[in-house]
Structure formats: structure tokens, C-alpha cells
Amino acid sequence: MLALIAWSMIMLVWLYVRRLPALVRYAISEARPQSSNVERRLPPQVQWPADNYNNLMEQPTLFYALCLGIYLSGLSNPNLEYLAWLYVALRVIHSLVQVIANITIIRFCLFLASSAVLGLLCIQAVWIGFGL
Length: 132
What we know:
By secondary structure, the chain is an all-alpha fold. The chain has helices at about 1-30, 35-40, 45-55, 60-75, 80-100, 105-130. The two termini are about 25 Å apart. The model has no long low-confidence stretch (mean pLDDT about 90).
């Protein structure tokens, strides 16, 4: 859980490093910059880190809640740890693909894979938690 939170913070820094120079150039080039035009006028590569950061604030919140539930329930199982680390790895790879190349089909496959892993993590935790 902490690894994915740390990765989200890295992506936040990446977002600012990539966007701030472009925003400054845009503000200097426009006499009266309109905030509604900013995202349309920036190159797509500048927007990708922001899009990815937004993605990291969506589905991973379920991962955080699930991890907290597993921890607070006292569940312990190597499969749970493996699936959690696999989910984090897939999300990091998804981020890198989105920010560097933004190849939609690869991102989609990574999203599906990470969603499946999150689902398996949930099923495994319920299975263990209820002694099934």
C-alpha cells in the first residue's frame, strides 16, 4: 500500500515537472490566458502525467481500503502479499506506459490485468476471512 502511495507522489512530481514549463510558456504567449483553453492548447505529452495521476486517485482507492481491511482483520497469507505486490507492479507499469508513450491498447490490457488482480485479492481475502 505504501509503495503505491509513494508511486502516486512520484507521479505528482512528474506531473508538475512536465506541466509547469508548458503552462508558463502558455501564459507568456497569451495576452489573456483562458483556463478553459489551457488543456486543449498544451501538447498531449504534457497532459499525460496529469491524466495518470487522476487514474491513480480512482481504482487504487479500492486497493487501499482492501489492504486496510486485510490488515485490520489480521489476515495473513503469502497469496495476499503476492497479489498486492502484483497489483502495485501493474499500476506502476501502467503509469510508465501512459506517461512515456500512451499506447492505449497496452494501457487497457494493463488496466484489465490490474483490475483482475484486485478482484482476486478481494476474493482471496474474503475466502480467508470467512474461512471458506
